[in-house]
UniProtKB/TrEMBL annotation:
SMART domains in alphabetical order: HTH_ARSR
Keyword tRNA processing found: no
Cross-referenced InterPro entries: ArsR-like_HTH, HTH_ArsR_DNA-bd_dom, HTH_MetalResp_TranReg, WH-like_DNA-bd_sf, WH_DNA-bd_sf
Name listed for the protein in its UniProt record: Helix-turn-helix domain-containing protein
PANTHER family in UniProt: REGULATORY PROTEIN ARSR, TRANSCRIPTIONAL REGULATOR, ARSR FAMILY
Keywords: DNA-binding, Transcription, Transcription regulation
Keyword RNA-binding in annotation: no
Domain HTH arsR-type: 1-83
Length: 173
């Protein structure tokens, strides 16, 4: 989780996920970072298994990187499984991801008008048991995996899309 708490690392991961393999130079140019900084963060992401080098494309000092095979569903650890000294890292990651999601959410009205076929939304409300909510969540994840493709094997016309699901109890507000 600590590796993901750095904003440039998250931007690098996003860039590789959406646009595919790249070098530290090309990533640095696009993200406005120098090659040394980009290389350092790429090595950190590699160390923690988030990305991998593409040896067949790399030559000399030019190293090509791609996202490592990762699940389409990234979950936060349960709070009761996090050591107290690691809780600030989780809190910061939640804060940063919330800010990123709010930026996405702010784009929704414009995207909805511009490209309704791709900017879909729904709001829901239900009474559920804890077990029923857990089953609903797992069914959602199965649907996500069933209808998703990796960038490399996506069919023609496939586009990257942001997908978010969150649930909150409604009786605490």
């Amino acid at each position: 989780m600590k590796a993901l708490s750095h904003p440039l690392r998250r931007r690098i991961l996003h860039r590789l996920r959406v646009h595919g393999p790249a070098t530290s130079t090309t990533i640095g140019e696009v993200l406005g970072a120098n090659t040394g900084t980009t290389s350092y963060h790429l090595r950190q992401l590699e160390k923690h298994g988030f990305i991998e080098e593409i040896p067949e494309r790399s030559a000399g000092r030019e190293r090509w990187w791609r996202r490592a095979e990762t699940p389409r569903d990234v979950r936060m650890p349960r709070p009761d499984t996090v050591a107290p000294e690691d809780q600030p890292v989780i809190d910061e990651l939640l804060r940063v991801r919330h800010a990123e999601d709010m930026e996405l959410f702010s784009r929704l009205p414009e995207e909805y008008r511009r490209d309704h076929a791709w900017a879909l939304l729904s709001r829901g409300f239900a009474h559920m048991t804890e077990e029923g909510l857990a089953e609903f969540f797992e069914a959602y994840i199965r649907l996500l995996q069933e209808h998703s493709h990796d960038r490399e094997d996506a069919p023609p016309g496939a586009r990257p899309v942001h997908i978010r699901l969150f649930t909150l109890p409604a009786d605490t507000d």
